[in-house]
Every structure is written in structure tokens, then in C-alpha cells.
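ESCALATION

Customer reports they have been waiting on this structure for their group meeting. Please prioritize. Original submission:
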Amino acid sequence: MKYESSYGKEELIRRWDEITSPARFAGANEQLDWVYNASRNGDSVRLVKKPRASYDPYATVFRGKIEETKTGSRIRGVFTKGAADYVITAFIAAVYFGVCVAYVGRAADKTVPYLLISVGIAVFIFLLTPLPGKRRKYGELIREVVGEAPGAAGTDNSAPTQTQEQKEKYKFRLGVKNKRGGV
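Update from on-call: job pushed to the front of the queue and completed.
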């Protein structure tokens, strides 16, 4: 996935850090108990949506990189699952398919074992494939970072500039105090 922005690389890195900061989600998240856990190491970015206090198995993870372009910058990355999820699934799949192969060797009728193998393959693929709804939710936050309108496509080259009203709304969500002392 590519998310284009008219902002420069340094500005996009700053926006990533601001919008994905834990302080933004502290007590003000719309979904109450779910937060985006983001990290950045140089130009590499990582985003995962999970419950605050627990590990969410098979959570979708966005792994990307902030890159400089001729017209600004972009965030390019892929949606995956966590590394531990792949290792655990591979171990369970090896045991499951080992039992299925042993069962195929002993069974007179091969229909049931082959059906079990087919169902197992389908389940493991389903567990390791990020769902479109999750991609859409992550995309909304990433489009906010790059400065696109919420309904815009992820590859739109023309990111709109922020109006004063959008800037005030953004400041309010971050809890930044305005000149009058209010939030």
C-alpha cells in the first residue's frame, strides 16, 4: 500500500510521531479499550491496533517505510501479522498435518483425511491473512498522518491542505491548549 503526501519527509515523520503518540489515545479513544500502538525506528514505521492491557493474537500489523518523493513524501508498506503469530501457526500446522498424514496412512477411505487437510489449510490461510475491514481502519489513521481526507484512496497524489477548522479540530484531539487557555 502507498499513501502519498505533499508534506516533506521530516514533516511526515513529525506527524507520524504526533498522531500515533500514546497521549492521543489516553482516555479519549472512540473505541475506549482499543488503541493504536505505533513505533518508528528511523524511517521504518510499525502500527498495530490492540487492547491496551493484553496481547491480541493474530492482530493485523502495518509495517512500512517513510520515503522521500519528488512531490513530497509517502508511507509505503504491507499489512501482515505478528512474527510470533507466524511461528505459533507454523508449529500448530506441522503438528496438525503430521497427525493428518498419519491418519491418511491408516484410513481405508481417503475422503475424510483429505477433507481435514483442506479445512486445515483454509483455516491457517484465514488466520494469517489481514481482513479488509482491518486494512480500512488502519488506512484511515495513516491517511490522517499523510494529510488526506478520510474518504480518499490510499494512492491519491493530491493531499489537501488543512483548513483552520481542521487544524483546530486536530489540536483539540491532541489536547493542545489554545491561546485562551482552553483545550
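Sent to customer with the following note: The radius of gyration is 22 Å.
Escalation resolved.
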